[in-house]
Amino acid sequence: MESFLSELGHAVNVRHPNVARLVGVGLEGGEHLVFPFSRLGCLSRRLHGGSGEEGTMPWEARYKVALGAASGLEYLHERCARRIVHRDVKPANILLKDDYEPQICDFGLAKWLPAKLTHYQVTTFEGTFGYVPPEYTTHGIFNEKTDVFAFGVVLLELLTGRRAIDGTIVPEQQGRGLEDGRSRSRRTIRRGAAPPRHARSPTLHTHLAGPKATDEPASRNASTPKSPTL
């Protein structure tokens, strides 16, 4: 019940087009939060599979998801009444409306971060391997930059169409997958090849290929990235 009330507390205090809107609560048969139905499901489903859907997401839609998710995170970090660190940003936690407008959801691991604090430190790991930065896996330190790292991984998935990790990668090797993704993107740009999976915007391709998911916390900007031009 404590974790449910914590998630409920976050959900009722956010108001942004790119953050899922709570419409109700159910207690019969367990605790449930109710959100508007998303016919397209989550970003992970559109990118990585299910009923022949893998790779069908248009490039313009990926562009829209990238900017919308960035706007939602910027709201949580800088413009929400109380600063929120989501702690589990990943494609499975980004819902898609019919027009591919993204909505960040699932605040089960989210934490308020008071203005007087620069970070939290925990002793128990919570989150998803492949989307967490080194300082969190090794020292339990997290703040807004933790979400920015995860968002960088999401950008790589949008660009390459490949999962951040698979079942064969152990936590200590997750950085290798990120670097492989960055290297593939840079090689594609250098040789002038077309962006992968029906990509139609070389400018956006170049923008997403930048090192958003850097291992250095100081290099991660917690604000919305500049919008690339189509």
From TrEMBL:
Domain Protein kinase intervals: 1-230
Region named Disordered: 173-230
Entry's EC annotation: 2.7.11.1
Biased composition (Polar residues): 220-230
Keywords tagged on the record: ATP-binding, Kinase, Nucleotide-binding, Serine/threonine-protein kinase, Transferase
Annotated InterPro entries: Kinase-like_dom_sf (IPR011009), Prot_kinase_dom (IPR000719), RBK1/2/STUNTED (IPR046958), Ser/Thr_kinase_AS (IPR008271)
Domain of life (superkingdom): Eukaryota
Catalysis: reaction(s): L-seryl-[protein] + ATP = O-phospho-L-seryl-[protein] + ADP + H(+); L-threonyl-[protein] + ATP = O-phospho-L-threonyl-[protein] + ADP + H(+)
GO molecular function: ATP binding; protein serine/threonine kinase activity
SMART domains recorded: S_TKc (SM00220)
Keyword Kinase annotated: yes
Pfam families hit by this protein: Pkinase
Protein name (Swiss-Prot/TrEMBL): non-specific serine/threonine protein kinase
Organism from which the protein derives: Aegilops tauschii subsp. strangulata
Highest classification ranks of the organism: Eukaryota, Viridiplantae, Streptophyta, Embryophyta, Tracheophyta
